[in-house]
């Protein structure tokens, strides 16, 4: 029987910064950091603000997801590539590429 892959997934398509760790079809952790209060006074999501907050929050959200999952050895990374706001997606993709290079892991998109 083959081992079920452990995957860290990153989601930044709009205004929430999210990371989850899964083993096969089981969710080991799911962390969501909402930006809603930061955009409320503007009446909707402001792309530049969303981009900055994703950049700031991604390391903490990913670290929390990994910690809650028991810091497993990852087999791959996954990231949302669309649809969504381009500046938000760019942050998630860039951070995923950074992790892939650092840990020599494949990216699923």
Give a structural overview.
With 109 residues, the chain is an alpha/beta fold. It has a single domain, classed as ATPase, nucleotide binding domain (Nucleotidyltransferase, domain 5). Helix content is 40%, strand content 27%. It has a five-stranded mixed sheet with strand order 3-2-1-4-5, covered by helices on one side. The two termini are 26 Å apart.
Mean pLDDT: 95
What is the CATH C-level name? Answer: Alpha Beta
As laid out across the biggest beta sheet, the strand order is 3-2-1-4-5
Overall 3D shape: elongated
In total, how many beta strands?
5
Main beta sheet: 5 strands, mixed
* Low-confidence parts: none
Structural class: alpha/beta
* Strand fraction: 25-35%
Supply the number of helical segments: 3
CATH homologous superfamily annotation: ATPase, nucleotide binding domain
What Rg is obtained from the alpha carbons, in whole angstroms?
A: 14 Å
Q: How would you spell out the order of helices and strands?
A: EEEHHEHE
CATH architecture level-2 label: 2-Layer Sandwich
Q: If you consult CATH, what is the topology?
A: Nucleotidyltransferase, domain 5
How helical, in percent, are the residues?
40-55%
Kindly give the count of domains.
1
Terminal CA distance: 26 Å
Keywords:
109 residues; alpha/beta; Nucleotidyltransferase, domain 5; 5-stranded mixed sheet; 3 helices; 27% strand; elongated
């Amino acid at each position: 029987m083959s081992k079920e892959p452990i995957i860290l997934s990153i989601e930044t398509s709009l205004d929430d910064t999210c990371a989850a760790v899964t083993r096969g079809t089981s969710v080991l952790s799911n962390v969501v950091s909402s930006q809603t209060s930061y955009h409320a006074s503007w009446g909707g999501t402001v792309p530049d603000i969303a981009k900055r907050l994703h950049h700031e929050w991604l390391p903490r959200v990913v670290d929390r997801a990994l910690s809650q999952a028991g810091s497993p050895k990852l087999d791959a990374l996954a990231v949302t590539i669309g649809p969504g706001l381009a500046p938000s997606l760019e942050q998630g993709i860039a951070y995923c590429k950074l992790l892939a290079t650092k840990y020599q892991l494949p990216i699923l998109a």
